[in-house]
Design brief:
The protein has one helix spanning 50-56; strands at 11-13, 19-20, 25-26, 37-39. It is of the alpha+beta class. A two-stranded parallel ribbon has the order 1-4. A two-stranded antiparallel ribbon has the order 2-3.
Length: 66
Protein backbone atom coordinates (compact mmCIF):
# COMPACT_ATOMS: atom_id res chain seq x y z
CA UNK A 1 0.00 0.00 0.00
CA UNK A 2 1.35 3.43 -0.94
CA UNK A 3 0.78 6.50 1.15
CA UNK A 4 0.96 9.98 -0.30
CA UNK A 5 0.98 13.28 1.48
CA UNK A 6 1.59 16.94 0.79
CA UNK A 7 3.99 19.06 2.76
CA UNK A 8 4.37 22.80 2.81
CA UNK A 9 7.24 24.14 4.88
CA UNK A 10 10.20 26.43 4.54
CA UNK A 11 13.70 25.05 4.03
CA UNK A 12 16.51 25.96 6.38
CA UNK A 13 20.19 25.15 5.77
CA UNK A 14 21.92 24.19 9.03
CA UNK A 15 25.46 23.48 7.85
CA UNK A 16 26.49 20.02 9.02
CA UNK A 17 23.57 19.83 11.47
CA UNK A 18 25.94 19.34 14.39
CA UNK A 19 25.37 20.63 17.90
CA UNK A 20 28.50 19.92 19.94
CA UNK A 21 28.77 22.46 22.75
CA UNK A 22 31.65 20.48 24.31
CA UNK A 23 33.63 21.32 21.15
CA UNK A 24 32.40 24.91 20.99
CA UNK A 25 30.42 24.21 17.81
CA UNK A 26 26.70 24.52 17.11
CA UNK A 27 25.18 24.74 13.63
CA UNK A 28 21.76 25.33 15.21
CA UNK A 29 22.75 28.33 17.33
CA UNK A 30 20.37 31.18 16.57
CA UNK A 31 18.26 29.17 14.11
CA UNK A 32 14.50 28.76 14.45
CA UNK A 33 13.88 25.29 13.01
CA UNK A 34 10.35 24.79 14.29
CA UNK A 35 7.97 23.99 11.42
CA UNK A 36 10.78 23.94 8.86
CA UNK A 37 12.54 21.26 6.86
CA UNK A 38 16.18 21.32 7.96
CA UNK A 39 18.69 20.60 5.21
CA UNK A 40 22.18 19.56 6.28
CA UNK A 41 25.46 18.84 4.51
CA UNK A 42 26.96 15.40 5.09
CA UNK A 43 30.28 15.38 6.89
CA UNK A 44 31.86 17.47 9.61
CA UNK A 45 34.02 20.56 9.91
CA UNK A 46 37.72 20.01 9.21
CA UNK A 47 38.55 21.19 12.72
CA UNK A 48 36.90 18.06 14.20
CA UNK A 49 39.05 15.06 15.08
CA UNK A 50 38.60 12.19 12.63
CA UNK A 51 36.77 10.08 15.24
CA UNK A 52 34.22 12.83 15.86
CA UNK A 53 33.83 13.45 12.12
CA UNK A 54 33.20 9.78 11.36
CA UNK A 55 30.58 9.58 14.13
CA UNK A 56 28.74 12.55 12.63
CA UNK A 57 28.37 10.64 9.35
CA UNK A 58 26.74 7.61 10.98
CA UNK A 59 23.20 7.99 9.67
CA UNK A 60 22.13 4.69 11.22
CA UNK A 61 21.99 6.45 14.58
CA UNK A 62 20.05 9.45 13.28
CA UNK A 63 16.74 10.25 14.90
CA UNK A 64 14.00 11.97 12.96
CA UNK A 65 11.15 13.67 14.75
CA UNK A 66 7.95 14.91 13.17
Amino acid sequence: MKHYFSLFAGLLLAGFGISAPELGYDDYAGLDVKGKIVVIVRGAPRMFASTVASASQDLAGAHLTP
